[in-house]
Specification:
The chain is an alpha+beta fold and 182 residues long. It has five helices and nine strands; from the N terminus they run βββαααβββαβαββ. It has a single domain, classed as Gcn5-related N-acetyltransferase (GNAT) (Aminopeptidase, 3-Layer(aba) Sandwich), CATH 3.40.630. β8 and β9 form a beta hairpin.
Length: 182
């Protein structure tokens, strides 16, 4: 994958090894409808891996919440077609939400099978970690199905540590310490 930085913060053009071009950029409110429409392209397994349980559709309320962020406590990037927001099909999303009253952020990543194995998950995670460090968070964490070997492998490779959720069989929490003790 080739990457070219763009003037807008957090944005860059991506040229994938398979020849496709994408734009990595912050999520925009205009992405709501394309994201909602693209949800139908996801396999049930992709949905379950991301949301930890099956869901049939993204409700307008949920999509609104996902695309209208509070910049003080939320951050999300999309990998989309190089078209204006609202017109571009979104194929990958990475996001962090700061837990209220803490210095911990929860991450989530979804890369469509149509863009899998191109390095987008790793790129998104590195950007999320960078944002969390800039926000001076102490920890970044996420809940992952224990069968999601791709996400667990990525987390391991980036230094996250695993712990089993005692009251949630089948869920692994991955944690990355962002600040070391003085």
């Amino acid at each position: 994958m080739q990457r070219v930085s763009l003037p807008q913060r957090w944005s860059e053009r991506l040229h994938l090894d398979d020849g496709r071009d994408l734009l990595l950029r912050p999520i925009q409110p205009e992405d709501a409808e394309p994201i909602r429409n693209a949800f139908s392209l996801l396999s049930p397994d992709e949905v379950r891996m991301r949301f930890l349980h099956p869901i049939k559709e993204l409700t307008p309320e949920l999509v609104h919440r996902l695309t209208h962020l509070d910049p003080a406590t939320e951050f999300a990037l999309v990998a989309a077609e190089p078209l204006p927001p609202g017109e571009a099909l979104v194929g990958a999303v990475g996001r962090v939400s700061v837990e209220p009253g803490t210095r911990r952020g929860e991450f989530a990543i979804l890369v469509s099978r149509f863009l899998a194995n191109q390095g987008l998950g790793r790129l998104l995670m590195r950007k999320l970690v960078r944002w969390a460090k800039l926000k001076k968070l102490d920890e970044l964490y996420g809940d992952v199905l224990d069968e999601n070997s791709a996400m667990l492998g990525l987390a391991d490779a980036l230094g996250f540590r695993r712990e089993l959720a005692p009251d949630d069989p089948g869920i692994v929490r991955v944690r990355l310490a962002l600040r070391t003790a003085a």
